[in-house]
Amino acid sequence: MAQLVYSSKINKIRTFALLLIFGGILLMYGGLLSRGTDWLMFTFFALGVLMVLLSCVVYLFIGTLSLKAVPIVCPSCEKPTKMLGRVDACMHCKQPLTLDKDLEGKEFDEKYNTRRYTREKKKKEKQ
Ligand SMILES: [Zn+2]
């Protein structure tokens, strides 16, 4: 059976922001290397600065997300972690976590975070 590799959303976004910064620095370095060609250097620098700025925005976004995330103690590794949405994974041990009692014991699925699922669940409760 394939091992479920799922990392917590906050970690995922953080990795993305870090990659953006590295990408931006690499691009600016590329700009330095292409000093001879003005337009190439300018393009590299502009893209590099843009990527670094974007990663700052992403970091700000993580900050607001972290405020909204629910802090909990992971039942499996007993470290404090934060979760976003209905289902998420522990930041330390990747243990799938849920806030929804109905989903306890069910196989982990990202679809439980979608709006469609919430809607269908509400519909079922009305019946
Ligand atoms: Zn854990």
Provide a short characterization of the protein structure:
The chain has helices at 9-33, 38-68, 115-126; strands spanning 70-73, 80-83, 87-89, 96-98. The protein is mainly alpha-helical and 127 residues long. Helix 1 (9-33) runs antiparallel to helix 2.
Write the layout of secondary structure elements.
Elements: H1 9-33, H2 38-68, E1 70-73, E2 80-83, E3 87-89, E4 96-98, H3 115-126
Antiparallel strand pairs: 1-2, 3-4
This protein binds zinc ion.
The site of zinc ion has 9 residues, from loops.
Beta-strand content: 5-15%
CA radius of gyration: 20 Å
Structural class: mainly alpha
Order of helices and strands: HHEEEEH
Ligands bound, unique: zinc ion
Taken from the alpha-carbon principal axes, the silhouette is elongated
Q: How many distinct beta strands?
A: 4
Number of domains: 2
Mean pLDDT over all positions: 85
Task: Provide structural commentary.
By secondary structure, this protein is mainly α. The chain has two domains: 9-68; 71-126, no CATH class. Helices cover 54% and strands 11% of the residues. It has helices at residues 9-33, 38-68, 115-126, and strands at residues 70-73, 80-83, 87-89, 96-98. The strands form two sheets. The chain has a two-stranded antiparallel sheet with strand order 1-2. Strands 3-4 form a two-stranded antiparallel sheet. The protein is elongated. Zinc ion is lined by residues 74, 76-77, 79, 81, 90, 92-93, 95.
